[in-house]
Design goal:
By secondary structure, the protein is α+β, with helices and mostly antiparallel strands. The protein is 25% helix and 39% strand. It has one domain (15-130): Nuclear Transport Factor 2, Chain: A, CATH 3.10.450.50. Strands 1, 2, 3, 4, 5, 6 and 7 form a seven-stranded mixed β-sheet that branches. The mean pLDDT is 92.
Length: 133
Amino acid sequence: MRAAPAGYLIAMPTRERVNEFIEAVCTNNHADAIARFYTEDASMQENLAEPRKGLALLVERETKVLASVASVETHRPDLVMIDGDKVVIHWIFDFAHADGRKRRVDEVALQEWRGDKICRERFVYDPSTAAWK
């Protein structure tokens, strides 16, 4: 575990809490998972893009993304690593558009947790593989 500055404690998620988050995401109701597992001041970042900040904005954007597709299938992660307040999850999502087009997003989520909630997340993936086909 990394050392905290004098007078501070590093708040870490438990393995059980991370598993609860994974189960919530695997229901494909991603907006609800964000509402339940992210801090009010949370941020999300796609690759090197500017981060999106604030829980309300994160939930709103995810709701719009899910409304824009016919379906999404969330695959159970094959890799979950927890090191103090840092969590790494390998996700695969298959999206289907109403017109039959499909896309697969294969990403690694780099998360920072504050206690039992995510305060910062960055998704790393090859954007060319996430294009509609």
